């Protein structure tokens, strides 16, 4: 007779499905995911509220929400790849990554998920890297891995691939990819991905079947920065993706390092400029080891206490400690005229450039709970975008 799931196991399974559905719902980004759980306490309640919230924000059609069958299919497909899903609030979720305002609600991990919570440094750089740049990256990664650090990179051509190759000598590397685990990118790195998964880990927030596109890479870069105590840049041109990763590291309170290069080589300008701005100059692994922050201090400083995925009789309320506590009286006034007036005033204040939410609260004449509720509705309607750092921006391409 097959074993039957206990009530607690069934509740855990349903919670996983509901969280995955909420994370994959149209219009629900990482920041909004936290807000919805903070306001409605459970993913099931948040899912039930999504259509009415989007309609209140001006959306004509309800947002697309995956069915339970579709969520189960993603779980099964991930398992068939040999990977597992780790959700925000799960005890296995990496604590440094959870500190980000826009921490991914769910990540897929192929390999050893325990590596994601160990002391790590990211090593990134240009795709069109010089021979010397690749050698420096490979040697530096090998030395850092031998010293006990996990080396993180993005599995791109050039510096990223060299960093993974060096760290593989100690079997301590994590590749953060922009697409699904079944869509290695670039395609010629499929074998590299297999080798990394065998002794390290491959991580993505994308579901299976997603082929990476240009818009996915900045999101991947924030995960690279979020998992690491610091980011080392080797050969990065100005306005490159590597500099985006460095900026995200600064915003997350992580250390930034850079390997200097010849002023005659345009590939070195980005790293050299980082040094001018205060990045730690790196010549050897010792320079990184001497300046890397303490893992516990970074992990515990201001860490969002997200609710545990697995219920416990002694655990606090599911909504306790989220980044935004459930606002008392957060619902808008009953009058449709009041609601329209709040939406209009908020939209008038916003443009395509990010605006601090605090500035919106100061300049609107309505109450803070009403404005926060309006921001949530407008985002779910596809009219604004919530960004990390407590900022919002208007979207020109309305999906309502």
Largest sheet: 9 strands, mixed
Provide mean pLDDT, rounded: 87
The count of DSSP E runs of length 2 or more, i.e. the number of strands, is 12
| Percentage of residues in DSSP E strands | 5-15%
User: Class by helix and strand content?
Assistant: alpha/beta
Q: Helical amount among residues, as a percent range? A: 40-55%
In what order do the strands lie side by side in the largest sheet? 1-2-6-5-4-3-7-8-9
The backbone outline, from C-alpha atoms, is globular
Q: What is the rounded Rg?
A: 22 Å
Order of helices and strands: HHHHEHEEHEHEHEHEHEHEHHHEHHEE
Low-pLDDT stretches are 302-334
Distance between the termini: 51 Å
Count every helix, treating DSSP H or I runs of 4 or more residues as helices.
Answer: 16
Description:
It is a single chain. The protein has 400 residues and is α/β, with parallel strands linked by helices. The protein is built from 16 helices and 12 strands. It has helices spanning 7-24, 30-40, 43-56, 68-80, 95-98, 131-146, 159-167, 190-199, 216-227, 241-251, 269-276, 285-291, 295-300, 336-349, 357-363, 368-380, and strands spanning 84-87, 106-111, 120-125, 150-153, 173-176, 201-204, 230-234, 255-259, 280-281, 355-356, 384-387, 391-394. Strands 1-2-6-5-4-3-7-8-9 form a 9-stranded mixed beta sheet, sandwiched between helices. Strands 10-12-11 form a 3-stranded antiparallel beta sheet. β11 (384-387) and β12 form a beta hairpin. α1 (7-24) packs across α4 (68-80), α2 crosses α3 (43-56) and α9 crosses α10 (241-251). The longest helix has 18 residues, at 7-24. The chain is globular. 47% of the residues are buried. Residues 302-334 have low confidence and may be disordered.
